[in-house]
Write a structure and sequence with these properties.
- Helix content is 80%, strand content 0%.
- It has helices at 2-14, 17-33, 38-58, 67-92, 98-113, 128-156, 161-189, 194-216, 223-248, 256-276, 279-296.
- Helix 4 (67-92) packs antiparallel against helix 5 (98-113).
């Protein structure tokens, strides 16, 4: 059963393969011919076409008789969305309202997350809490860095869009390779090797991200960025999916749906926080400019 779960996770990761190879090239072409704003509108059209394929099967799923549980989770979920929005907006702003808004969002996140996530997350308690924390930090690191790789290739290294898109394709391809590698290791060595796969996968991920960072800031030539993305993707595929297996085996069978939402929530939250944390540079630059104007007076 664990072996089947590993293959299932690898198959899900494989769905990124074709979009990862075709999507960046197509997005680069659309941006060059029209504007980058046209790319999200094209994606919105695809969502409209795909929605019936998702909604129709859900109509056949029996509704669980857990109205009280749904109500208990609904309001914290809505509160989490509001607090999350406040935090990101506060991190983005550089005026006097930015810091109070970010602090209010942070307090709101801590308060609303309590009923949505298991106890012991802040202490990184072994089992599911530590698996969720690890998922969040991995998303914070790799996907946060990924938000700026294409920007660095375009603005710092002045590469054409077609080459910039290759960096995204490499990440999708190598992630799939890593996912199937962990499925093979799960089959060969079984669950006892799972924690070791997470550790070694994170080591490979760190090496790849380090190479990518050195290429982004021109310490090393820009081809290192692509090599680092390849290495990091393989490490991510191994560690990410092995961690998901570890989390799945930390909850009862009937709580798989709740686990899926917890993993998705912590991943999206930490990815957005990583992007929002670019605010200090702008904030300090504005503050420094303000102090300079004060001295001139």
């Amino acid at each position: 059963r664990d072996e089947a779960k590993a293959r299932m996770l690898a198959a899900v990761s494989s769905m990124w393969l074709v979009p990862g190879l075709v999507g960046p090239v197509l997005a680069s072409f659309i941006t060059a011919q029209f504007s980058w704003r046209a790319v999200p509108w094209c994606l919105a059209g695809l969502l409209v076409l795909a929605a019936p394929l998702c909604l129709h099967p859900l109509r056949r799923v029996p509704r669980p008789n857990t109205a009280a549980t749904q109500k208990r989770i609904l309001w914290p979920t809505l509160g989490l969305m509001v607090a999350f929005t406040a935090l990101i907006e506060g991190l983005r702003r550089t005026d006097a309202l930015g810091l109070p808004l970010a602090l209010a969002g942070l307090v709101g996140l801590v308060w609303t997350a309590r009923p949505l996530f298991p106890r012991g997350m802040w202490r990184m308690q072994p089992g599911l809490p530590s698996a969720l924390v690890l998922r969040g930090f991995v998303a914070f690191a790799l996907m946060g860095q990924g938000s700026f790789v294409t920007l660095a290739l375009r603005e710092v290294h002045k590469l054409p869009l077609a080459i910039v898109g290759i960096s995204i394709s490499i990440g999708g391809l190598s992630w799939t390779i890593g996912a199937w590698t962990q499925a093979y290791l799960e089959k060969r060595y079984g669950p006892p090797s799972r924690l070791a796969r997470i550790r070694y996968g994170l080591m490979v991920l760190t090496c790849g991200m380090t190479l990518t960072s050195l290429g982004m800031i021109k310490v090393l030539p820009y081809p290192v960025i692509f090599a680092g993305g390849l290495i990091a993707g393989i490490g991510m595929g191994i560690a990410y999916n092995s961690n998901s297996l570890y989390a799945m085996n930390s909850v009862p069978e009937g709580q798989a749906g709740q686990l899926s939402s917890q993993l998705a929530n912590i991943e999206v939250l930490m990815t957005a926080v990583a992007a929002g944390l670019t605010w200090p540079r702008s904030w300090f630059e504005d503050m420094r400019a303000g102090l300079g104007r004060s001295r001139d007076r």
